[in-house]
């Protein structure tokens, strides 16, 4: 049943989806999908449009409740939590990087990064201090007070990455994180994403269309018509020149 | 215009229709804002035209004196009272035509098919319906009347009747109530400038200024609804190579289409509301619907004006897109607003104080000054929002406060648009609440009727008082006084004969019994004297409520529409933040703080400004006094305003919930 786990790793999965099914009307977006991810592991989810890969990500991230099946985080079931607890879980234990637009345009970059910490109750000054620590390692030195509109696409994505990780996320979900970037910037971004999450011992789930993005991950699962139809370890590309200094 | 060619219209129409459900909702909000603005504009214009029409219909009662050789009639006016309501009595004596002149017969008085013959009494429908009006000869037509319920009588006399030959002194306490017999060549009359009709016209003008500016703000705001969605879309077209003129043309076409739809809906709303509006009792009673109808030319002018205003506002907001699309697409840092705005505001207030302090201002000057202060509020508003945002951002400890502060700081003009209606309504509340024109009246004795007669006739008339009242079985105490109540010939050599009626319910019967003792004069009580100021004061307070009601309605509608539009504009960011675990409560609180907080601060400031501007007018006549009901009204307005603001902001919470929910996955 749990065939889509890395058989070579002795660690228990940090996040596990078991027999996940989800329908929208008459469309079956997911059909009994199993997927498990371990701490520090990166998994690319690939598939054509409408294959159900984003739905899988949203069910694993507790954004959508599956119609059937279970989602376990550290062995505990999370798919039955009520909405306030689901929000808290997403904020505290998960991190998200989307294609674009997740930064609040009126907040400077540092406040965008500090926001999850403040939402968790950390005093503003302390939250901003913690947030600033992420800028230099991600190559964003000097961009702390810039607005999202003043950043390049790659810089904005790195700010989003910092925000995803600043609160100590166990799992980072990235939905087409390079979709709005040019190829070179996209490669830098995915390299940094993989490296930084690994450095944090966080699991990474990346939804992408792009084979060159998937190759950065430890393994790739392929989704079609709501089912996982294949899995292979990626051909790792050396992470040189990504600018990650952390 | 080459930019507004078929391609532009087609493309605009397709983009408008293709906006999806949220796009349609945003367009719907724009249309609703234009419609509300147009309806209220029509009602404002209609009220002004209505008062003018009423005044025009009473012009004929103020005779224009002519050379007796050219006169066709002698006309006089007196006023009596039934149940405390004034009854205008127009005495007319037709003069014999000159047989040497072959002219066509003179036109009869307005609302009458012919001249009244001696002894005839023609009454308005409302007067004719009263008990005891069976002797009425005929009913006056609409042309003779200001309003449907008005009580008017036209009485025919011979030219040599004492009623038409005895001089009548005018009474400055009640202008227009008494007119001495005057030879007239026709019944066109003259426009009075000191009568109650003029006061109402001035009041309508002032009320219109106070309502119309928030309305214009709402109208202009409608063009800015969902502005970021539209700007982004147009900026992308610009990036794709569309010429700036094409972009401007599309923005103009979109604004023109939505505002034209809204203006048309508003016109329909106005037409539908007209019968209801005509029932509103102002200046003595309800209206003729035709008086409140603005007429086709004004209708078209207002429609064109609304479309033009919204289109210009849309084009003004589009400058960024046309000048530099990247600036809009990527939302670079907004320019900070200059503190010169605050200095300008202070300068206007100082100028107002200099103009108004210690000297009486006519109503036109008050209107212009109010307009200037309104404009000054609109100048300082965005600056105040930005300053509040800076303060809030610096002091913020919680994420909601930080988000709200940054939003205020980032786009103060947009936030100002959301709260400007309420702010201007706050000014109106402050201006009107303590602005009481009722200074108390020295006149009283509602049970004592008086007639003014020459000294020589005092004894004879006093005896007649007793006889007539006895014949009518009315218990009364007859006396004389020197206190000026009734106005006789105006010569000054007169005395007042009084009858204090024991049973107030017999007052009108006593009036009837005593009528005719002094030619052209009706007995009146002390309270009858200031009926005009009492009525105006009553209507002034009603108008205050109406203006405040309209202002707050517009303001709350404006706030609600802008809040909903803001949610639609930022739906992607809200959705993604929620997906990333930001509680909906935090997003909602921040969103509400960014409108409720500046709304509260600016409305309070505007209210104080209103009090400041009303102070010279309120205290111009004498000792400053605190108007208890005014303070209560102020408190009620503030409470309702803030509850409305909070409610309008909260009303878009379901929309926020929906857009957040809509950020989840859907089948491709």
Secondary structure elements and their pairing?
The complex is a heterodimer of chains A (246) and B (668).
Chain A: E1 15-24, E2 27-37, E3 42-46, H1 53-60, E4 68-73, E5 76-77, H2 83-93, E6 94-97, H3 109-119, H4 124-132, H5 153-165, E7 171-175, H6 183-199, E8 203-208, H7 211-214, E9 219-224, E10 227-233
Parallel strand pairs in A: 3-8, 3-9, 6-7, 7-8
Antiparallel strand pairs in A: 1-2, 1-4, 4-5, 9-10
Helix pairs in contact in A: 3-4, 3-5, 5-6
Chain B: H1 6-17, H2 20-58, E1 73-82, E2 85-94, E3 121-123, H3 125-128, E4 138-139, E5 152-156, H4 162-165, E6 179-184, H5 196-224, H6 227-239, H7 244-277, H8 289-292, H9 296-317, H10 319-323, H11 325-329, H12 340-356, H13 363-395, H14 399-410, H15 412-433, E7 448-454, H16 458-471, E8 476-481, E9 494-501, H17 507-514, H18 526-529, H19 531-569, H20 571-579, H21 584-618, H22 628-651, H23 653-661
Parallel strand pairs in B: 2-5, 3-4
Antiparallel strand pairs in B: 1-2, 1-6, 3-5, 7-9, 8-9
Work out the radius of gyration of chain A: 17 Å
- End-to-end separation of chain B in angstroms reads 42 Å
Show the largest interface: A-B, 44 and 32 residues
What general outline of chain A do the C-alpha atoms trace?
A: globular
Short synopsis of the structure:
The complex is a heterodimer of chains A (246) and B (668). By secondary structure, chain A is of the alpha/beta class.
């Amino acid at each position: 049943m749990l065939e889509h786990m890395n058989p070579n790793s002795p660690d228990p999965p940090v996040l596990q989806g078991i027999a996940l099914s989800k329908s929208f009307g008459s469309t079956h977006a997911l059909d009994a999908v199993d997927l498990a991810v371990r701490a520090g592991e990166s998994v690319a989810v690939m598939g054509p449009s409408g294959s159900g890969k984003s739905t899988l990500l949203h069910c694993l991230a507790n954004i959508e409740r599956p119609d059937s099946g279970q989602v376990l985080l550290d062995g505990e079931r999370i798919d039955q939590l009520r909405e306030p607890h689901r929000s808290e879980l997403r904020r505290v234990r998960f991190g998200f990087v989307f294609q674009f637009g997740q930064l609040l345009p009126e907040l400077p970059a540092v406040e965008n990064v500090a926001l999850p910490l403040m939402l968790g109750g950390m005093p503003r000054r302390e939250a901003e201090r913690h947030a600033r620590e992420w800028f230099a390692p991600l190559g964003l030195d000097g961009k702390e007070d810039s607005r999202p509109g003043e950043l390049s696409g790659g810089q904005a994505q790195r700010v989003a990455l910092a925000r995803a990780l600043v609160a100590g996320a166990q799992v980072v979900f990235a939905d087409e994180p390079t979709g709005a970037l040019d190829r070179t910037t996209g490669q830098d971004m995915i390299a940094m994403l993989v490296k930084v999450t690994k450095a944090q011992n966080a699991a990474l789930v990346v939804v992408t269309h792009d084979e060159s993005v998937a190759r950065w991950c430890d393994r790739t699962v392929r989704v079609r018509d709501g089912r996982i139809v294949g899995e292979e370890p990626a051909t790792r590309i050396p992470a040189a020149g990504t600018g990650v200094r952390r | 215009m080459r930019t507004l060619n078929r391609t532009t219209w087609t493309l605009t129409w397709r983009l408008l229709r293709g906006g999806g459900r949220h796009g349609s909702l945003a367009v719907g909000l724009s249309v609703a804002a234009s419609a509300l603005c147009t309806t209220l504009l029509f009602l404002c214009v209609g009220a002004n035209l209505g008062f003018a029409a009423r005044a025009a219909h009473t012009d004929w009662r103020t005779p224009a004196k002519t050379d007796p050789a050219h006169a066709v009639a002698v006309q006089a006016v007196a006023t009596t009272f039934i149940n405390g309501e004034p009854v205008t009595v127009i005495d007319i004596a037709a003069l014999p035509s000159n047989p040497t002149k072959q002219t066509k017969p003179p036109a009869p008085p307005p609302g009458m098919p012919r001249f009244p013959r001696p002894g005839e009494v023609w009454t308005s429908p409302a007067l004719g319906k009263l008990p005891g009006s069976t002797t009425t000869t005929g009913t006056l037509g609409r042309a003779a009347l200001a309003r449907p319920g008005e009580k008017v009588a036209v009485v025919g006399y011979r030219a040599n009747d004492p009623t038409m030959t005895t001089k009548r002194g005018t009474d400055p306490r009640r202008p227009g109530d008494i007119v001495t017999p005057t030879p007239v060549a026709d019944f066109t009359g003259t426009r009075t400038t000191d009568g109650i009709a003029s006061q109402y016209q001035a009041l309508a003008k002032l009320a219109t200024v106070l309502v119309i500016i928030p309305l214009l703000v709402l109208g202009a705001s409608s063009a800015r609804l969902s502005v970021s969605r539209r700007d982004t879309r147009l900026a992308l077209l610009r990036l794709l190579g569309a010429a700036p003129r094409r972009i401007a043309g599309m923005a103009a076409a979109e604004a023109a289409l939505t505002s034209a739809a809204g203006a048309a809906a508003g016109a329909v709303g106005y037409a539908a509301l007209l019968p209801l509006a005509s029932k509103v009792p102002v200046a003595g009673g309800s209206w003729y619907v035709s008086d409140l109808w603005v007429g086709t030319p004004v209708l078209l002018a207002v429609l064109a004006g609304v479309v033009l205003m919204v289109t210009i506002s849309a084009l003004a907001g589009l400058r960024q897109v046309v000048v530099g699309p990247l600036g809009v697409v990527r939302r670079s840092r907004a320019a900070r607003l200059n503190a010169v705005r605050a200095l300008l505001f202070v300068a206007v207030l100082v100028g107002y104080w200099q103009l108004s302090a210690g000297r009486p201002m006519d109503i036109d000057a008050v209107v212009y000054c109010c307009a200037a202060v309104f404009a000054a509020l609109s100048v300082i508003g965005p600056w105040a929002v930005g300053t509040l945002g800076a303060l809030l951002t610096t002091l913020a400890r919680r994420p909601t406060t930080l988000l709200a502060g940054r939003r205020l700081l980032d786009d103060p003009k947009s936030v100002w648009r959301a709260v400007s209606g309420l702010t201007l309504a706050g000014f109106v509340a402050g201006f009107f609440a303590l602005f009481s024109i009722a200074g108390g009246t020295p006149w009283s004795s509602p049970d004592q009727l008086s007639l003014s007669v020459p000294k020589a006739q005092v004894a004879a008339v006093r005896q007649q008082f007793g006889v007539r009242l006895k014949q009518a079985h009315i218990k009364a105490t007859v006396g004389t006084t020197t206190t000026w109540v009734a106005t006789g010939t105006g010569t000054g050599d007169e005395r007042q004969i009084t009858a204090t009626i024991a049973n107030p319910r017999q007052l009108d019967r006593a009036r009837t019994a005593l009528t005719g003792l002094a030619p052209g004069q009706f007995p009146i009580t002390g309270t009858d004297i200031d009926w005009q100021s009492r009525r105006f004061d009553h209507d002034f307070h009603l108008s205050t409520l109406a203006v405040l009601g309209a202002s707050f309605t517009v303001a709350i509608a404006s706030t609600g529409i802008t809040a909903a539009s803001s949610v639609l504009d930022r739906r992607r960011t809200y959705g993604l933040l929620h997906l990333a675990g930001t509680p909906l409560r935090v997003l909602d609180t921040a969103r509400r703080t960014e409108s409720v907080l500046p709304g509260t601060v600016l409305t309070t400031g505007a209210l104080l400004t209103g009090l400041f501007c009303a102070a010279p007018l309120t205290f111009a006549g004498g000792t400053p006094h605190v108007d208890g009901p005014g303070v209560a009204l102020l408190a009620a307005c503030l409470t309702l305003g803030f509850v409305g603001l909070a409610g309008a902001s909260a009303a878009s919470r379901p929309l926020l919930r929906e857009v957040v929910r809509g950020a989840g996955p859907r089948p491709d």
